[in-house]
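Worked example 3 (structure in, sequence out).
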């Protein structure tokens, strides 16, 4: 039977600290990983000789997408927590109303 590939959690988790809170970097990372998943799935499907091998490729692709989705969620969550910590520290140090206003997050 054909060997099935799955993008490992170690590979995905290793980049989490690097990406931190930059939304553009997280989105770019997500795009690149999705491209890699599709390329691997395409190669797997082309190499499949039986219906079972084809199905295994589809299952592996779905699992890889779910792992990526979870990883990107965790990256975004960590970024939000870092923003909260930064704001909390700013508020704690505030001495005046102007200091508090400076801690507000601008709406986009």
């Amino acid at each position: 039977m054909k060997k099935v590939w799955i993008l490992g959690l170690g590979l995905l988790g290793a980049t989490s600290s690097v990406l931190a809170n930059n939304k553009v970097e997280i989105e770019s990372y997500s795009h690149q990983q999705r491209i890699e998943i599709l390329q691997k799935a395409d190669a797997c499907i082309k190499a499949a000789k039986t219906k079972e091998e084809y199905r295994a490729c589809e299952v592996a692709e779905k699992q890889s997408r779910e792992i990526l989705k979870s990883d990107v969620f965790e990256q975004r969550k960590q970024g939000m927590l870092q923003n909260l910590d930064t704001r909390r520290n700013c508020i704690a140090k505030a001495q005046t109303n102007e200091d508090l206003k400076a801690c507000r997050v601008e709406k986009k």
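Notes: The longest helix spans residues 51-93. The chain has a mean pLDDT of 84.
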